[in-house]
């Protein structure tokens, strides 16, 4: 049976830390498309305190999450165990986008592991509801390893390539909502600097 939790206690933090991936869901306020994104690289997610989490948002094929957060802030993160111990954990909350040119970014960046090229932002989530579910129908999978393809792809990109992404497919959501501001591109010296 599902259980609701008061805060992100040590047991929940261990469960989150053991997952190799997570899923992020958002939706626009009116009409439009619901977005559900899988996220990899386990060092890109951090529990900041009992009711706050964050993850590194890397450049991708779209920018739905950022656009939806700018629109209404609603976000759900789901962790799903594929091991013998079945469990699904959902974090419901309000998210905000912290860009590399924001003063808060440098401190947030210290909560994450390895340097990943192509960091677009940090998404910070104020968690309002924490609930798990059994996950009994989720299949078993064995983790072979993390897929290095996105990091390898981003490592070959130039500052101009990322700026073009902001002006292009990362400027607006597929429904036309504003996402990244082309007038204020991500500064490369912050974007590619480790803490």
UniProtKB/TrEMBL annotation:
Residues 174-195 are annotated as: Disordered. It comes from the Bacteria. Residues 8-131 form the Pyridoxamine 5'-phosphate oxidase N-terminal domain. InterPro entries: Pyridox_Oxase_N (IPR011576), Split_barrel_FMN-bd (IPR012349). Gene3D superfamilies: Electron Transport, Fmn-binding Protein, Chain A. It holds the Pfam family PNPOx_N. This is Pyridoxamine 5'-phosphate oxidase family protein. It comes from Nocardia panacis. The lineage of its organism: Bacteria, Bacillati, Actinomycetota, Actinomycetes, Mycobacteriales.
């Amino acid at each position: 049976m599902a259980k609701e939790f008061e805060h992100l206690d040590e047991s929940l933090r261990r469960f989150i830390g053991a997952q190799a991936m997570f899923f992020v869901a958002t939706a626009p306020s009116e009409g439009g498309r619901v977005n559900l994104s899988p996220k990899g690289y386990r060092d890109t997610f951090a529990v900041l305190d009992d009711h706050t989490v964050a993850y590194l948002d890397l450049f991708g094929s779209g920018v739905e999450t950022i656009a939806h957060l700018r629109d209404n802030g609603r976000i759900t993160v789901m962790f799903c165990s594929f091991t013998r111990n079945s469990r699904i954990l959902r974090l419901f909350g309000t998210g905000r986008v912290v860009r590399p040119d924001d003063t808060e970014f440098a401190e947030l960046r210290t909560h994450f592991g390895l340097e990943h090229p192509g960091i677009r932002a940090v998404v910070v989530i104020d968690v309002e509801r924490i609930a798990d579910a059994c996950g009994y129908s989720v299949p078993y999978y064995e983790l072979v390893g993390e897929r290095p393809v996105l990091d390898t792809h981003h490592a070959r990109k130039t500052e101009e390539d990322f700026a073009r992404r902001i002006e292009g497919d990362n400027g607006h959501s597929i429904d036309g909502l504003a996402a990244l501001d082309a007038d204020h591109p991500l500064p490369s010296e912050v974007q590619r600097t480790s803490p």
